[in-house]
């Protein structure tokens, strides 16, 4: 009977062992699943970090390109402003020259008018002188 008793205990131990083995096996599967999930999440996060780094680098390059573009545009603006200053000076010089010429023209026109008045006066004197000479009168 001792042997008979031992058999049920062995059988029980075997059931417990099998149950424990099944439990540990199930626990091990859960742990492996969690581990695989953790690896997937880690890889996903690594990919996301790499993607964000690429985006950051692209933005940095774009920002640098924009800075260079702004520098070029500022240079063009400065050159355009300098050209405007030169043109404004040339314009002011041309306006002053035109005004001076206009004043000279007015002065010459006044001189011409005075000259014509003198010519007309001389012409009248000659005409009167000729009339007096024809009439035999002596001008007074």
Question: What does this entry look like structurally?
Answer:
The structure is a single chain. By secondary structure, the chain is mainly α. It is built from one helix and no strands. The relative contact order is 0.03.
Radius of gyration: 58 Å
Number of strands: 0
Number of helices: 1
Overall pLDDT confidence: 87
Detail the topology: elements first, then pairings.
Blueprint: H1 2-135
Quick structural gist:
The protein is mostly helical and 140 residues long.
Key attributes of the depicted protein:
140 residues, rod-shaped, mainly alpha, disordered N terminus
């Amino acid at each position: 009977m001792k042997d008979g008793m031992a058999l049920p205990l062995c059988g029980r131990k075997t059931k417990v062992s099998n149950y424990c083995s099944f439990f540990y096996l199930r626990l091990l599967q859960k742990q492996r699943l969690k581990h695989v999930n953790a690896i997937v999440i880690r890889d996903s996060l690594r990919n996301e970090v790499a993607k964000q780094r690429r985006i950051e680098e692209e933005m940095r390059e774009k920002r640098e390109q924009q800075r260079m573009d702004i520098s070029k545009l500022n240079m063009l603006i400065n050159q355009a402003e300098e050209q405007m200053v030169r043109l404004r000076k040339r314009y002011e010089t041309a306006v002053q020259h035109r005004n001076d010429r206009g004043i000279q023209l007015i002065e010459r026109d006044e001189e011409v008018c005075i000259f014509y008045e003198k010519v007309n006066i001389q012409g009248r004197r000659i005409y009167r002188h000729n009339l007096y000479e024809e009439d035999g009168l002596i001008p007074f």
